[in-house]
Amino acid sequence: MRDSPEYAGYKRRLYRILAAYIAGLLVFLLLMAWAERQGLSRFWLGPIFMFSTVMVYAGIGIYGRTTDPEEYYVAGRRIPPMFNGMAAAADWMSAASFISLAGGLYLQGFGGKDAQPGGLAYVLGWTGGFCLVALLIAPHLRKLNLYTVPDYFSLRFGGRWPRVIAAFAAVVCSFTYVVAQIYGIGLIASRLTGVQFEIGILLGLGGVLLCSFLGGMKAITWTQVAQYVIVLLAFLIPVSWLAYKQLGNPAAPLVYGNQLQKIAQLEKKLADDPAEREVAAIYLKRAHEYEAMLRDIEGSLQRARAAAQSRIRTLKAQGADSALIVQANRELAALPRDAAGARELWTRAMHESFERSRPLGGLPPHSQAFAGDPDGTPEQREAYDTSRRNFLALMFCLMVGTAGLPHLLTRYYTTPTVAEARSSVAWSLFFIALVYLSAPALAVLVKFEVMHNLVGSSFDSLPGWIAQWAKVDASLISVADVNGDRILQWGEIRLGGDMIMLATPELGGLPYVVSGLVAAGGLAAALSTADGLLLTISNALVRDVYCHEINHHVTPEQRVILSKFALMAVALVAALVASFKPAEILPLVSASFSLAASAFVPVMVLGIFWAGTTPAGAVVGMLGGLGVTVYYMLVNAPAFRAWAGLPASGDLWFAIQPISAGVFGVPAGFALAVAVSLLKRRA
Fold this sequence. Notes:
By secondary structure, this protein is mainly α.
């Protein structure tokens, strides 16, 4: 098939369609820019961007609709390597990569802190993981002509339990991942249209279902190709503009190093600024107040509630403005309802206040390798070792997790041959690198823009985008005149990692049409990954569990129909979970990598390269690796510890943070699988 005239003609048609799509997209952007210059309101630009792009994806989904199992599950196994690489890159370029990667680099710098890995760990881990995919996994799975990752465990080890456990693990890690994507969808949709966050989730979810419900992998593949083009333009245009504005050269990855030295100088200046020290002292005082409240939670809560009620009565007695009374009632309603809620809320506030009382508002110097000093005091040496340990642990989990993510591995089932599966991995890495090389540059350029131009501004003349983003979600941006001087200090502004990329055009003074493009790019990144994840979950539930364990008499066409309805149900449940905003995007996605790494990779690699791996070893290895990882994450989750009445400090092993729990689960999975396999062979 690879060398046939029909296949060559098929690829030529695809190239022509791709060229026409890119040309049409550029014409659309120019038309929107012209309309903005002619006075088209931002009120219309955002919805137009969202509606237009989602309709393009929906059109592709409708055009690619199918009930053929081969087309629905693996796109007919006829996707050329370059297009499969673009689709895999879009699948990979999730909300975490597009929205949160630059934010992680902005907040954590290159090396991070003693308890928080640096942003470069994400870049190195996620990129390096594709080398493992190409060398260890993708070609071996493709030559087996399978449909899902649990299919491999069933084929290699036989029996019901390897498939069932693999399906369960696929659901767990993919669901964690998809919640993060739907959270990103809600974030972007609400910013583009101005609706509430929860309604934004439902608007974006409609696009997901139109793409994946009708056509499965066939429709998803071509939708992801279209989405990758938007993601690439949406990422490169703002970072190139900032580089040209600051340095006179749009090649951001090549020139952003010039700003690192300037940022280091600004960091030193801010650390020595008396106004910044005053802000830090106020936060330290607040931290001690929360600390005192936590010593007597019941009494503190009663006093806070009594003070709030007294203030409301005083305002009413004085005939105060109704807005003040409403605000006082909101403050009363916002108080914790019970001691457990107060403990969790005040503990978090105390830690945040202590953090913001540190130099630079608790952010590490951007270009430092690791926290602490290897040649300093014992405390500095310990901080250095902890920082380096967490950096390497996270990088390990992201690399190994990449090789185990079911929705990514399924992408390489869609190529015509094993050789083209390997080639498509190389294309994936190329298309991902185009964005990943620019992410560190974007973080540096945005940080310079904030430090140099935003800090020092008057509170009376702050740009309007700050208030607009705060309306979307107060956790995205926090600006408060802590010391009352009406001048914005670095310590008085806190940007959430999930908005650094999305706010870049407004921060850099670009036309709003670029903001619309960036939001559309973030939406495309979240939608593309959500499509693949939902398909993986529905296939695991229907194909790998229901059809093999519950009802063996399901026709291929019925299986496809059941998968579609399972996909819709999972999407609605994930939307419900995302509406509660369980965590930021980056931690959720990182957790899913640890889960995938520990559940799949040890047994998968042993099954490929060691003939001695037994079914019992596979079962114990998967359960053991996943169990260790889930336990470590759960026992160190603040909400779980508060519910269980455990100390808030956590129970860390070797000071490794819970998002890197896979660093314990992967060795456990390997060791258990090998040990049980050897014991069974001797028995």
